[in-house]
Design a protein that fits this description.
five-stranded parallel sheet; 2 domains; ATP-binding; kinase; ATP binding; nucleotide-binding; about 60% helix; 9 helices; globular; Rossmann fold; about 250 residues; alpha/beta; adenylate kinase
């Protein structure tokens, strides 16, 4: 008789434990159901909602104006990017904005940044990102065209981050002219444009800066699938024949 009582007690305890386990697992079960339902709702939303939210542009209200199409053009000094930008602009209807040209224009103005920019360019250094980006922003906003080649910018990761913060967007793509160092030095010394930074010492310093801080920018855009690499050796016509198919494939409104 005692054995039967003890057995009954053990069976009762076992059933009690089973029920406790079931009730304990119910919240986890319903939580899992909610997670599945939310995941399904998210998939449905992603399937039908194609519009993305664009980061706001610093210092600019929503005017409803079409966003500009921007291509960064990168390459070392003497890589031919400036010459090719002129050909691209003429052939495909882009506005050519040279970051270096904007800085040189500002350098010869009476602005408070002029003397500082001149000193930096003589040393082969890079102007502050805020100054360069705001000059680019002003050039874009004052143009009637909405297609732009930004020549020689960004030259550093700091430039890139400043541009995306102030403009509020990434470039549509990046054109990169790959050229051997000896070819670039020879081109710069032979162009004789009267620029204060066109001497052998300054060119070599600029090349050091280019390798250290500009190439990582090109690598960043390559990782994002936005970089078009072009062989920068040969004549101007030969290089442009390598560039032409890239822009000919674009479907842009005029």
């Amino acid at each position: 008789m005692r054995v039967n009582v003890q057995t009954q007690i053990q069976k009762t305890k076992h059933r009690s434990k089973m029920w406790r386990r079931r009730f304990t697992s119910l919240p986890l079960f319903f939580s899992h159901l909610q997670q599945v339902r939310r995941a399904d709702e998210l998939k449905i939303c992603q399937a039908f909602c194609t519009e993305t939210v664009k980061p706001p542009v610093e210092g600019e209200s929503n005017s409803g104006r079409n966003s500009p199409f921007v291509a960064f053009v990168l390459g070392g000094p003497g890589s031919g990017k400036g010459t090719q930008c002129l050909k691209i602009a003429e052939t495909f209807g882009f506005d050519h904005i040279g970051a270096g040209d904007l800085l040189r224009k500002e350098m010869h103005s009476d602005s408070e940044n002029g003397a500082m920019i001149q000193k930096l360019m003589k040393e082969g250094s890079i102007a502050p990102s805020e100054v360069t980006v705001k000059l680019i922003k002003k050039a874009i906003e004052s143009a009637e065209n909405r297609k732009f080649l930004i020549d020689g910018f960004p030259r550093s990761e700091e430039n890139r981050v400043a541009y995306e913060r102030i403009i509020g967007a990434e470039p549509n793509f990046v054109l990169f002219f790959d050229c051997p160092e000896e070819v670039m030095v020879k081109r710069v010394l032979n162009r004789n444009e009267g620029r204060v930074d066109d001497n052998e010492h300054t060119v070599k310093e600029r090349l050091k800066v280019y390798k250290a801080i500009t190439l990582p920018v090109a690598n960043h855009y390559a990782m994002k699938g936005k970089l078009y690499k072009v062989d920068g050796t040969g004549t101007q016509e030969e290089i442009f024949e390598r560039v032409r198919p890239i822009f000919a494939s674009l479907r842009l409104s005029t």
